[in-house]
Amino acid sequence: MDVHPLVRKIAASDTTNSATHYHIFWSNESLDWKPFPTKEEATILADQIKKPDEGFTVVERDGQCERCKIFKSASKNGAA
User: Fold this and answer.
1) Which residues contact 57 (CB under 8 A, 6 or more apart)?
2) In the predicted model, what is the mean pLDDT of residues 63-80?
3) Which neighbouring-strand residues pair with 21?
4) Which residue in 2, 80, 78, 74 sits closest to 44, CA to CA?
5) What is the pLDDT of residues 38-54, one digit of tens each?
6) At what angle do helices 39-49 and 5-12 cross, to 10 degrees?
7) Model pLDDT, residue 6
């Protein structure tokens, strides 16, 4: 499988952005925990890892993102 160079960059990065960022919302209604700094990066990765016949939407969030707050809290407590 040919992996887009941006996918490698995203996978290697730790994007803990408190400002505007993006999440992948999968068609099975699950939200990817990893924040992305741009919509393009989220879209490229989603296109690379999605299952056949699986859809997704990239959603914009801000510094008040509940998903990021939950993940950061769980990480601090050793649950993630």
Assistant:
1) 24, 25
2) 74
3) 61
4) 2
5) 999 999 999 999 999 99
6) 100
7) 57
- The CA distance from 6 to 12, in Å, is 10
Higher confidence at residue 41 or residue 8?
A: 41
Q: Is the pTM of this model over 0.85?
A: no
23: β partners: 59
Residue 28 exposure: Cα atoms within 13 Å on the Cβ side: 7
Kindly state the tokens that stand for 31. Answer: 């939200």
Neighbouring residues of 32: CB distance < 8 A, sequence distance ≥ 6: 23, 24, 25, 26, 46
The structure tokens 């995203």 sit at 10
Contact 36, 22 (CB under 8 A): yes
Distance (Å, whole) CA 14 – CA 63: 16
